[in-house]
Amino acid sequence: MNLVRFENPYRTVNRNLVDDLFSNLLKNDYDENYLNDCNCKPATNILEKNDTFKIELQLPGFNKEDVQLNYHENLLTVKVELPENNEEENKQEEEFKYERREFGVYNFERKFRIPKSVNGEKIEAHFENGILELVLPKKEEALEKEPVDIKIN
Fold first, then answer.
1. In this protein, which residues make up the domain named SHSP (predicted)?
2. Domain limits at 69?
C-alpha cells in the first residue's frame, strides 16, 4: 500500500491571507508618513428625522477655526487645510521617533451630495468636543403631512 500526501488547498490560502495581513499591518503602522499619504476621512454619522437631516463628523485634535464649510448646488463640502510647518510638531519629531502611529491631525476634504429637499440657507453647524454637527432642515414642501380623512357622501 502506498501513502499519498494530501495537502488541503484551503490551508494554503488562509496562510497567505494571514501573511499578507501582517505584512500590510506592520508596513502601514510603522511608516511615519502613512497618515500624511493616506486619504483618511473622519468617521461620519448621517441621521434623518421627519423635518431634518443631521451629519456628525468626528474631528478629534482639530479646532473650530481649522474647519471650512461650503454649500453650493446641493453639494456640502467639509474641508481642513492645516499649515504645513507646525513648530510644535516639528520640535516633538526632533525629540521622539514614532515606533507606532495610529492617529494624527491631517488635511482632508469630504463632500456630501445633499437632496434638493434641504433648505440650504438654514444649515446650522456646531462644533463641540471634537464633534462637528451639521443640521440640515428640510424645506416646508418636503415635510410629510398628516393623512387627510375623506368623507363619503
1. 35-153
2. 18-142
32 within domain boundaries = yes
pLDDT in tens, 94-142: 778 777 776 677 788 899 999 888 988 999 999 999 899 999 999 887 6
User: Percentages helix, strand, coil for the chain, rounded to the nearest 5?
Assistant: 30, 30, 40
Instruction: Please name the residue that has the C-alpha cell 398628516.
Output: 146
Single out the residue of 62, 58, 51 nearest to residue 133, CA to CA. 58
Helical segments of the chain, H only? 9-30, 34-37, 87-95
Task: Please tell me the pTM assigned to this model.
Answer: 0.63
Q: Which CATH number characterizes residue 61's domain? A: 2.60.40.790
| Within-domain flag for 88 | yes
DSSP string, 2-17: -------HHHHHHHHH
pLDDT above 90 covers a percentage of the chain that reads 25
Whether residue 64 lies inside any domain: the answer is: yes
How far is residue 147 from each of residues 8, 13, 122, 144, 150, measured CA to CA in Å?
63, 58, 27, 9, 9
